[in-house]
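I would like you to help me understand the sequence and structure tokens below and explain how sequence relates to structure.
___
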Amino acid sequence: MTTTVKVNKDRIWQRVMELADITEADKPYTRRAFTDMYLQGREHLKSYFSEAGLETRLSESANIIGTRQGQDSNLPAIALGSHIDTVIEGGRFDGIAGVILALEVAQVIHEQDIPLKHPLKIIDFLSEEPSDYGLSCIGSRAHGGRFSEAYLQMQNPEGETLGEAMTRMGADVSGVLDIQPANYKAFLELHIEQAKRLERTQTSIGIVTGFAGIWRYSITLEGQTDHAGTTPMDDRQDALLAATKLISLIQETAANDKSDLVATVGQLELRPNAVNAVPGWVRFTIEIRCLDATKHALVMNAFGKEVESLLDAKELKSATKEMISDVSPAPCDASLQTVLANACDANGLSHMPLTSGAGHDAYHMLHVAPSAMIFIPSKDGRSHTPEEYSSPESLSEGAQVLLDAVLELDSIPVK
């Protein structure tokens, strides 16, 4: 089901820019969760919730939730949302676009008095970006009933616990661990793509098929430290040289796969880290992301074989591997992908399937509700930078897809 009712492109752009102005003056665009600037941004955001005719409350986990009641209170809600916190010197659109466009959907429905059978909920999740407490997607984890006491005890560098910080944001920490997931028919999130695939192909909308799994390892290699001037090249156990061979193998294996598989070595330490010494010890991290878990195994199997080869050749004394984290891949709801595709087609918008290599609030929501995402183009694929940019046209197209998707979902009987 689609409608001739259209979203307001100028209002969308104005609101995105108004939120962008709520930033630390010397670090645009910075609105970190748990700061006074973040609270200021949320107070401004609440005015948009009010203008959209939503009954607004702060949840136990300090998410802002606005509700438009449906004709049948027994039906599960349709929910839209994202976040307005940023990384340091981030952008104007990451997360923010998802919240503002969700609010635009609610406001159009309110202004046109479009009847909905289902309740409609708009959610601004607390602290989606990595926080100073070592945890991301705080609000969506809690909203989905996936929080723990250990999370509440995590601390920032100043020693404040996450529980204390959430309380400052208005959370009821005593009830966070007892949150029961709400009854949802669907959850939809819009986000900028943070890559170049849509822009390169001149495609309007990316329909996310699923979230990549994320596997992280710490690798420690031990060779032998020797004098750089007196040890012959053929008599060395250079741990850094061995590391470079392994790192090259990881990159080549991922690149040759020609899929959504990506592998990154992001941290590296070596000892003694001296200009005149052969490195005898190296530690580095491996991060692998892909939707197909067998691709992860492909990289690590190739890595293991190369480690054995280096040990057999006496190029290393030892090698150890420690898993840091293991986040399973998760598909988006197939029926919701169809609804989003229908909305694109109804508006003459080109679309393509895309995998999300980044984590989002929707990843945590899909554990408790059928969930899906759409991406809109971001210029040059830039994100988490002041240069981040999505055009007014892309924003309004994304909002229109969300609006029509909500109306179609509302018309589909609950099974």
Observations:
- Residues 9-211+329-411 form a domain with the Aminopeptidase fold (CATH 3.40.630.10).
- The chain has a mean pLDDT of 96.
- Residues 293-312 form the longest helix (20 residues).
